[in-house]
């Protein structure tokens, strides 16, 4: 009797160990990944993001950094997956000969690296060596969208950081603002997204600014927002500091980039744009779902990748 219970117990332990091992080996993401190893993570991210949103100079009342973090995450996930490859600086001693941040779509345009560094240093002080830079960027992005009035999405954690960057992929795979609709649809399809998800994710342009070189010829008069970087234009000229559905309002006429304006050129997508313009809740629900999906593109887990000590350098 006792021996059979022990055998059953041993069996159970064995199965449990097998289960845990296979979860680690398959490296699944999970919502509670840091619950035990870094319980203060969420609070640190929230504090640092809100600090950053009051640090930026006007315009947008200091809130542009929220938009910049959101774009940084998109540009991470569309190149090699959400693996913090975009954060790596050139480091010839570590084999990083070309960085993604120097690629055409990113150079002199991506922002938010210092915010990620600030979060990372707080997180390292609280829970050393545990939390990846890719998870920090994923969490900071959700926090930024929420701080700008957007909606949160359920985020799975456990991403690991790349030991490589790929500048040529950043140049080939990040969509450009002069694109036509077919090119945009193809660029998103390459990463596993539908045309419907393209329209939902483009709603990120409800916040933030663009350099005048990227602005559609028809909208040049909007290039009048003074910044430290010269005159820029608001992607959403109604409420560029607020994450809302105003971007979709007459998008075909008011879109700042050609890539925004062409979204209404297919009847079914135009209907989607009009439904988001009529219902912020409809936009928020689809945006949240698409962001969760984007946050899982090409992630490294388990034995792949590493937890960087410094987000700008591989270990
Ligand atoms: C559909 C294809 C897309 C194209 C062609 C595109 C292109 C651009 C361009 C050219 C800018 C201005 C950059 C500058 O002049 O410095 C910009 C800004 C921005 N993009 Fe996109 N984008 C696209 C999709 C997305 C997606 C999917 C997201 C996020 C989910 C996003 C988030 C942003 C944000 C928030 C800004 C403002 C950043 C800031 O103010 O610092 N974009 N985008
Ligand atoms: C970088 O990306 C390009 C384009 O996607 C790909 O062909 C190439 O194999 C990648 N390089 C490395 C080293 O992964």
UniProtKB/TrEMBL annotation:
Positions that bind Ca(2+) 2: 206, 236, 239, 244
Gene Ontology CC entries for this record: extracellular region
Protein name: Peroxidase
Site (Transition state stabilizer): 71
Organism: Panicum hallii var. hallii
GO molecular function, one term: metal ion binding
Binding site for substrate: 175
Positions of transmembrane segments: none
Enzyme class: oxidoreductase
Family recorded in the similarity comment: Belongs to the peroxidase family. Ascorbate peroxidase subfamily.
Manner of cofactor binding, per the entry note: Binds 2 calcium ions per subunit.
Residues of the active site: 75
InterPro entries: Haem_peroxidase (IPR002016), Haem_peroxidase_sf (IPR010255), Peroxidase_pln (IPR000823), Peroxidases_AS (IPR019794), Peroxidases_heam-ligand_BS (IPR019793), Secretory_peroxidase (IPR033905)
Residue ranges occupied by any Plant heme peroxidase family profile domain in the UniProt entry: 28-315
Gene Ontology biological process terms from the UniProt entry: hydrogen peroxide catabolic process; response to oxidative stress
Known function: Removal of H(2)O(2), oxidation of toxic reductants, biosynthesis and degradation of lignin, suberization, auxin catabolism, response to environmental stresses such as wounding, pathogen attack and oxidative stress. These functions might be dependent on each isozyme/isoform in each plant tissue.
